[in-house]
């Protein structure tokens, strides 16, 4: 026995596989030529462990120089060449232009008679399919075998929809598959011939006429009793009645009638109908248009099927079978299709085993070769540049998806559409369309985009259209900004190359670069329209979902530009954050009118070729009056597709919630309550949705589901049949969105109403939620950590799903074990802010839920970084260090990571030698990070060494204007401010401002930040004070305030007034007014900044809480102690609650409260707070820091009030010494120290010394402060009091 004929998919012989042009480019040994063939089918040995197939898994496409003939763009369709004009139109936002959907799966319909091919089908599912999935996943190809034996629901059988389902699935496979889509397996049986499930009116009339002519009363009766005209079908047709079904016998009581009708009509078998639809007569063609890889034909003939012949392997239609085999073989020969013919001597086990091995191997090799061809083709395409490079193709597909999403049927609402189109054409500002879920926001925005696109398909308007949540690049705020940045870059390459430098790519986030490019494009008169739908659809883990200011300011900020218009949509409860955005107005989405509802219903009927009887249509519209939303009408109409024209008693709920409940009820009736419950629960509890294979496997964990699905016997793999999952998805398709999450194509609810209904129906109890998560954990835990077992490509799905679900269950030990033992879960999240925030949330939840345990992020992450694991590259090490520093304030752990990452094989002290040169930019970057950590640790000497060395080398290597150099300059300035060395900080900030002004546009945000920072440094250094008009420092002071105001103007232009960044600038201006004694102006700024911060950041944000202290201290300085005290107490309480006990702001709060308590003569409480402030500042900032000196002042006054004069003297002298040494004797802050010493000397009876200190204080303030400054009055009053009490001796 053997294979008499064998022709492979694209092998002329067993040694060649064709490249994209059909040229032999790679040698592959056929399994038949392998020296270690094993002709025993032993499926206990996994196919991937068998010698030949194990070697095949190591295959990769050989890198070859790309031929000029190879198309840059392959994946558009089989015969689609690269079209520059098409791509240009897509990039410009022409909604008529889009690429065909991307194909990433090989989906094969298995066609055969069932019983005699049970062994082959089982072997494919158990032995071949897992191997093909493994091999395909290496190249991003999903392999699916559509097995129709399992999963056709009882309801479908009762409704005679079996053939319809098979034909629909063949078409799905044809449309979806990137490779083969049809496998024909023909043996010794022709197969089952059912009666036609539907007849056209003419076919029915012809059948009646024929029966009458033949005087066949039995058939006449059968026709009239079995078929009925359904006028809802378009065109109206006769459909076979749903027969009465005997559940006990699993058969129709009308089977005899069905057999009579089958004999009368003499239809082809189901298998032949599949073949005809699959490739023989598709599109009225013999199939010659099909490419060589699309169809596989496997013929089998068993010589001896027993005497008498076994009914499993034989039926009476031999001639028809022979004719079908002949036509199939002729097709294979004409089209070079995959063809194999097997002759099996008998049904003996040895004969069948040998045949089964050959069949399984031939099938496997056929698909392997197809995947290899796809991989070679993709490898060739990936070598292209510009229009053909992978990133460009991804962007084109991304934009195309949004263009296609906009092509929905639209009716009515002309007034609001015209208003929104006019806004977009006006080219300025932002409009937010507000409407509840299911009211048609998405369709309306798509219509607006189409009209703008139609008005100017070739420019001058570029349309950036994004329906959030419908694609991977539209599921996070970070990705949306990056995607639109790339689109603008391709649309305006010359402007982009001039506006954005490589430095920008290295140092600026996508959102910032996007804004910069938008401004540049707008300034050249180019118009941009941004349409962003469904802000609520952003991924739930995205920080930008609830804090739009983290990414939308760059969009809203462009609203002030005359050539940029923005149109957004959001749910009503997602508008709070948007209200803080400038230059926008909110438009309410009007309710659908009854007339528009009728028009939409008629349009739906037309699009679906489906009619409604008059009463049916009236009943839908009657209920529509109660819920006039597009979602209600859509669900109600799709439900009506189940109705026959003779149905009169239909259940039609009068709102969306009821419609969804009915849909779930019908799904449960059709597919089983437990299956639908498990399916919907897992889909709902998985952010971003689940993949079809995931859903199939995870619901199969539920034994109740398996018992319900398999009433008699289970499928070979023991899982829920994929057909059932596809059928459920098909019913829910209009309400789902397809995404690509973690390299998987997933489905998820598009409308909030559906997941709310799912939660209410299936997830209302803690037990149901726990069970669903436990099943998912069991499923994901069994998955490998690395895809393909390669050890290189991480299974992102597993690494993201497990910690999230363990946290949901509050299984802290399991979560801790997972986080500490899986560095992969960290590395996949480091490259994005969303990922970092998500990973940090796991550790924070673990700490909050489990307390201080052995699970410590400060131990786990450094151990990952320093393990030497190939998984952790140099970039990851830097990111881990930054992650520890920024998210957990784990400075010691961060420092440890950076020190090892530095990789300098010299003594650490030698690094700082003047002649020691460092040219490696990575090492210099690492050194600046080390310096920044030392700054945060208050180890200022060490910080300065590292930062200054990094700055000096960068300045020498890349120049002083390079972004990296400017960044380190910023860190040096911050160090000096924290160190209390304000003069040096002023020098660095002056340099930074001048260089930024030289390098960037004066309206650039970086110039504003440098100006704001310089103004603040002037404030800290004491040089920001408003002197008298004739004072030589007046120009400096006014320039300082001018810079602060300039920063405010830029922030206002970029972000508008109601933005946290603008609030910080207003706060800084308030600080300048405060120290200048302009208390009313300062109060106005503080209060304005406070309100903005509360609205944009929230009441509990650290920056908001700081305002309690600032306003409290201002009231204190004004002498309004009754207003100051409650604010400073609140400041103290809130900071203590939310900040780390060692946070410097705790010390600030304690000292501020202590100072006012001194003035209120509450000396004991003031002493305790001041003492704690001194200790904390000495420990955290250092004993000689200016802020430590401020605390000593308060401590001295508290001690004085307690009567401890000597202790007061010590504290006052320490303060004076630090201030004079660090700030200089003429700094206004030194006047405070002199005043404190004057009070101490007076209490000691040292009157001359007291007067001397008071005169020094007056001299400093008279020199430094403007005339009329309140602080000058304080020194004047103190000196006057001392003179009055203790007149000077003469």
What's the β-strand tally? 21
Described by strand count, sense and barrel closure, the largest sheet is: 6 strands, mixed
So how many helices? 53
What is the first-to-last residue Cα distance? Answer: 134 Å
Task: Work out the helicity level.
Answer: 55-70%
Structure write-up:
- This protein is of the alpha/beta class and 1290 residues long.
- It contains 53 helices and 21 strands.
- The strands form six sheets. Strands 1-13-12-6-4-5 form a six-stranded mixed beta sheet, sandwiched between helices.
- β16 (527-533), α19 (553-557) and β17 (564-570) form a beta-alpha-beta unit.
- α47 (1144-1159) runs antiparallel to α48 (1163-1180).
- The radius of gyration is 38 Å and the shape is elongated.
- The relative contact order is 0.05.
- The model is unreliable at 1-27, 63-82, 245-251, 283-289, 383-388, 553-559 and 1023-1038 (pLDDT under 50).
């Amino acid at each position: 026995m053997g294979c008499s004929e064998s022709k492979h998919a694209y092998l002329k012989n067993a040694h060649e596989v064709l490249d994209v042009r059909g040229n032999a480019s790679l040698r592959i040994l056929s399994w038949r030529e392998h020296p270690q063939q094993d002709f025993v089918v032993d499926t206990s040995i996994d196919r991937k462990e068998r010698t030949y197939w194990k070697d095949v898994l190591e295959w990769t496409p050989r890198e070859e120089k790309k031929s000029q003939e190879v198309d840059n763009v392959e994946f558009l369709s089989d015969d689609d060449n690269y079209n520059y004009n098409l791509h240009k139109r897509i990039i410009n936002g022409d909604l008529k232009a889009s690429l065909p959907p991307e194909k990433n799966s090989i989906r094969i319909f298995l066609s055969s008679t069932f019983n005699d091919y049970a062994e082959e089908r089982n072997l494919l599912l158990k032995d071949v399919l897992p191997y093909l999935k493994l091999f395909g996943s290496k190249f991003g190809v999903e392999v699916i075998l559509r097995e129709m034996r399992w999963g056709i629901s009882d309801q479908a059988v009762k409704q005679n929809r079996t053939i319809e389902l098979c034909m629909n699935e063949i078409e799905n496979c044809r449309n979806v598959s990137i490779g083969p889509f049809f496998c024909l397996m023909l043996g010794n049986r022709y197969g089952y011939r059912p009666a036609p499930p539907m007849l056209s009116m003419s076919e029915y009339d012809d059948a009646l006429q024929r029966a009458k002519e033949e005087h066949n009363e039995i058939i006449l009766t059968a026709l009239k009793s079995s078929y009925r005209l359904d006028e809802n079908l378009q065109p109206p047709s006769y459909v076979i009645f749903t027969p009465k079904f005997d559940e006990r016998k699993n058969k129709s009581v009308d089977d005899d009638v069905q057999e009579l009708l089958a004999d009368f009509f003499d239809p082809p078998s189901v298998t032949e109908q599949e073949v005809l639809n699959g490739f023989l007569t598709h599109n009225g063609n013999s199939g010659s248009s099909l490419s060589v890889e699309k169809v596989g034909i496997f013929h089998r003939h068993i010589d001896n099927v027993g005497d008498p012949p076994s009914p499993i392997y034989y039926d009476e239609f031999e001639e028809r079978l022979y004719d079908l085999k002949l036509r199939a073989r002729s097709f294979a020969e004409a089209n070079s299709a995959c063809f194999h013919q097997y002759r099996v001597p008998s049904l003996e086990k040895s004969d069948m085993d040998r045949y089964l091995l050959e069949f399984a191997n031939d099938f496997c090799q056929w698909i392997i070769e197809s995947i290899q061809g796809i991989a070679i083709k993709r490898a060739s395409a990936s070598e292209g540049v510009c229009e053909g490079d992978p990133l460009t193709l991804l962007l084109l597909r991304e934009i195309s998806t949004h263009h296609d999403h906009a092509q929905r049927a639209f009716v009515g609402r002309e007034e609001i559409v015209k208003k929104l189109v006019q806004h977009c054409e006006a080219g300025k500002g932002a409009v937010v369309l507000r409407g509840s879920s299911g009211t048609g926001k998405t369709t309306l925005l798509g219509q607006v985009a189409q009209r703008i696109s139609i008005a100017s398909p070739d420019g001058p308007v570029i349309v950036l259209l994004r329906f959030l949540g419908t694609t991977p690049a539209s599921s996070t705020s970070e990705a949306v900004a990056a995607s639109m940045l790339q689109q603008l870059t391709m649309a305006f390459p010359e402007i982009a190359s001039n506006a954005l430098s490589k430095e920008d790519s290295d140092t600026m986030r996508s959102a910032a670069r996007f804004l910069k490019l938008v401004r540049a494009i707008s300034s050249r008169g180019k118009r941009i329209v941004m349409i962003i739908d469904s802000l609520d659809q952003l991924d739930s883990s995205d920080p930008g979902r609830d804090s739009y200011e983290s990414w939308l300011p760059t969009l809203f900020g462009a609203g002030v530009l005359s050539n940029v218009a923005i149109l957004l949509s959001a749910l009503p409860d997602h508008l709070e954050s948007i209200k803080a955005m400038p230059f926008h107005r909110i438009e309410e989405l009007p309710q659908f009118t009854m007339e528009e509802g009728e028009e939409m219903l008629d349009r739906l009927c037309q699009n679906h070729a489906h009619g409604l009887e008059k009463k049916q249509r009236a009943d839908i519209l009657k209920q529509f009056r109660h819920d006039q939303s597009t979602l209600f009408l859509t669900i109600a109409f799709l439900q009506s597709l189940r109705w026959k024209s003779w149905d009169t008693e239909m259940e039609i709920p009068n709102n969306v919630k009821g419609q969804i409940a009915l849909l779930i009820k019908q799904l449960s009736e059709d597919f089983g309550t437990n299956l639908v419950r498990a399916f919907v629960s897992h889909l709902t509890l998985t952010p971003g949705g689940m993949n079809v294979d995931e859903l199939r496997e995870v619901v199969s964990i539920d034994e109740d589901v398996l018992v319900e699905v398999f009433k008699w016997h289970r499928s070979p793999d023991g899982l829920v049949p994929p057909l059932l999952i596809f059928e459920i998805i098909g019913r829910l398709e209009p309400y789902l969105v397809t995404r690509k999450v973690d390299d998987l194509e997933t489905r998820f609810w598009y409308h909030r109403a559906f997941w709310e209904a799912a939660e209410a129906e299936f997830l209302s109890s803690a037990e149901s939620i726990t069970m669903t998560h436990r099943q998912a954990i069991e499923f994901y835990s069994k998955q490998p950590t690395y895809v393909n077992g390669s050890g290189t490509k991480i299974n992102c799905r597993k690494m993201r799903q497990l910690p999230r679900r363990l946290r949901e269950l509050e299984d802290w030990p399991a979560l801790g074990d997972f986080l500490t033992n899986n560095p992969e879960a960290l590395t996949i999240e480091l490259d994005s802010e969303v990922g970092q925030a998500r990973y940090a949330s796991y550790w924070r939840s673990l700490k909050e839920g489990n307390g201080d345990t052995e699970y410590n992020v400060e131990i786990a992450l450094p151990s990952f970084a320093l393990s030497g694991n190939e998984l952790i590259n140099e970039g990851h090490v830097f990111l881990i260090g930054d992650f520890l520093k920024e998210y957990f304030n784990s400075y010691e752990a961060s420092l440890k990571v950076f020190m090892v990452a530095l990789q300098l094989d010299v003594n650490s002290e030698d690094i700082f030698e003047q002649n020691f040169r460092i040219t490696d930019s990575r090492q210099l970057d690492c050194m600046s990070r080390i310096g920044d950590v030392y700054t945060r640790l208050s180890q200022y000497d060490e910080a300065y060494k590292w930062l200054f060395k990094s700055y000096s080398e960068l300045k020498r290597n890349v120049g002083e204007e390079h972004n990296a150099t400017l960044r380190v300059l910023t860190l040096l300035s911050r160090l000096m401010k924290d160190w209390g060395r304000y003069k040096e900080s002023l020098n660095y900030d002056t340099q930074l401002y001048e260089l930024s002004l030289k390098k960037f546009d004066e309206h650039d945000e970086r110039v504003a930040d440098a100006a704001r920072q310089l103004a603040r440094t002037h404030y800290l250094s004491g040089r920001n004070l408003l002197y008298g008009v004739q004072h030589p420092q007046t120009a400096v002071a006014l320039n300082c305030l001018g810079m602060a105001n300039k920063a405010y103007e830029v922030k206002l232009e970029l972000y508008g007034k109601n933005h946290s960044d603008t609030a910080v600038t207003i706060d800084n201006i308030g600080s300048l007014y405060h120290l200048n004694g302009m208390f009313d102006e300062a109060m106005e700024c503080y209060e304005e900044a406070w309100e903005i911060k509360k609205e944009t950041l929230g009441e509990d944000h650290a920056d908001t809480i700081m305002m309690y202290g600032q306003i409290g201290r201002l009231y204190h300085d004004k002498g309004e102690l009754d207003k100051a005290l409650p604010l400073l107490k609140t400041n103290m309480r809130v900071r203590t609650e939310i900040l780390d006990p060692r946070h410097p702001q705790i010390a600030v709060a304690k000292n501020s409260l202590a100072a006012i308590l001194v003035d209120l003569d509450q000396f004991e409480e003031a002493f305790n707070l001041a003492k704690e402030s001194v200790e904390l500042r000495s420990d955290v900032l250092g004993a000689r820091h200016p802020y430590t000196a401020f605390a000593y002042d308060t401590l001295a006054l508290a001690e004085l009030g307690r009567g401890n004069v000597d202790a007061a003297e010590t504290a006052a002298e320490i303060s004076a010494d630090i201030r004079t040494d660090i700030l200089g004797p003429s700094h206004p802050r030194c006047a405070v120290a002199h005043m404190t010493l004057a009070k101490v000397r007076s209490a000691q009876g040292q009157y001359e010394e007291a007067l001397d200190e008071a005169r020094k204080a007056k001299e400093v303030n008279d020199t430094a402060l403007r005339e009329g400054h309140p602080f000058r009055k304080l020194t004047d009053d103190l000196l006057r009091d001392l003179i009055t009490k203790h007149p000077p001796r003469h």
